[in-house]
Amino acid sequence: MRNRTILIVAVLAVVVVSLVPLSGTGVASTRAQKADGPVVKVGFMTPVESEGVSNPQDPDAIKAATKYFNKQGGAGTEHNRIEPVICDTHGDANGEVACARQMADEGVAAVLGDLIFENAAGVTDVLEQAQIPRIGLSASNPADFSSPIAFPVSAGPLGEVVGAAAGLDQAGDKKIALIQVETPTASSVPPLLEPPFAEIGVELLDPILVGTGESDYSTFVADAQREGADAATLLLSEQAAAQFVAATAQLRPGFRLSGLSPSFTIEVLRENKDVTKGMVLANSFPYPTANNVGRFPGLKTYFGAMKAGGISIDELNTASLRIWVAMLGFVRAAADLDAVTNETVLDALGTAQELDMDGLIQPWTPSTPGYGIFTRISNHFVYVMTFDGKNVATKKAPIDIGQYFSS
After folding, report:
1. Residue of 94, 103, 164 whose CA lies nearest to 137
2. How far is Cα 61 from Cα 48, in angstroms, rounded to an integer?
């Protein structure tokens, strides 16, 4: 199984359906023409291949989204043809900044769904100087929380961990061990989580750090058990999470497993249902499987677009859905623009209100300030999910995690 990122990767989806036209207001578009206007470039930065985190499917996902939206008329009133500029950061601090400079050199109108975690400050500096908006970035670093060019479409991984904590509290679990990858910024995570955890009424135990390339996860399971954890929340890559789950299945420590839904494939959950049944998962987007289509019809368009883009139905994952929502946010924000440039898109995002996001997230108002120190995260809603031994069910009503943060 390929190792995908700790923050955004995830789970299989299995449905093929008809596509629904989109417009800036959420009402079905009447325009039938394909994008035939001037090219507008959008950027995409992610570690496609690296020694640590790799997202090999991401380029195909943004290409599939581009193909779909170009068939729906492209971007803006002139039907600009969207063209993705894809840059592999290799999960390297210098590579991330090099990709940001490429975006500036290429003159992209926006960067969509980027994953930056080694040198967030350096990337922010480059893109701020170029005045290039970042739509749908995974905001997990202080450099992302207040940048005027940052427009997340999700609550971000820290907000999603808080959503998971609220779900665990509802399940009766009060002591939570956070299992996270050991990174240069790992120590900054607990101080950000402790206040909202206290507001919820749960205790964040000492974090358990997992180094890259670990092979024996029984040690980390034992550490969580030794701390007296009621639940272990995993902030790990898909591969590492699978190994932690397997070790839990062997040791049966008695605590509940939890985490961000992108870290868990449906196969891993089903293969280890003795310990995964009753898991509490959280994410800003619904779990992309067929059983959730009834509650989230917008998944139909996403599934169909990915299928038409050449991604087989057994490869769809939450990373692809995040990229899709970022592209959707770009198209909706630019819908009324005659000229689609980084300047006009940035201006549009600064005033946009209640953009319809097909019900995948709450109506998005990127111009609205966020909460606490997360001033750029205007979408502060998180879906709580549970695994019943067969499927992951996403609750229709999300949790507003803003209530757990001080203003």
Report:
1. 103
2. 12
State which H helix or E strand residue 39 sits in.
strand 37-46
H or E element at residue 225 = helix 218-226
Please state the pTM of the whole predicted model.
0.86
pLDDT > 60? residue 1: no
In a domain, 4, yes or no: no
Give the C-alpha separation, 328 to 7, whole Å. 20
Structural domains in the chain (count): 2
Instruction: Compute how many other C-beta atoms are within 10 angstroms of the C-beta atom of residue 237.
Output: 24
Q: What is the pLDDT of residue 52?
A: 62
DSSP string, 124-142: HHHHHHHT--EES----SH
pLDDT given at position 55: 74
The pLDDT score that the predictor gives to residue 363 is: 95
Assigned token pair, 386: 């549970």
Q: Decide if 66 is inside a domain.
A: yes
What is the rounded (10 degree) CA torsion for 261, 364, 349, 75? Answer: 80
**Same domain for 297 and 309:** yes
Q: Using 50, 70 and 90 to split pLDDT, how confident is the model at 285?
A: very high
- C-alpha–C-alpha distance, residues 311 and 315, integer Å: 7
Strand spans (E) along 71-171: 80-88, 110-112, 134-135, 150-151
Tokens 């019900």: give the residue.
Answer: 359
**pLDDT tens profile 48-91:** 887 666 677 889 999 999 999 999 999 999 999 999 999 999 98
- Rounded CA-CA distance 390/90 in Å is 35
Quick one: 162 and 275 in the same domain?
A: yes
The domain in which residue 298 lies consists of: 37-156+290-383
Question: Residue 286, Cα to own-chain centre: how many angstroms?
Answer: 11
Q: Do 128 and 195 belong together in one domain?
A: no
* Residue whose pair of structure tokens reads 């009424």 in the numeric block: 201
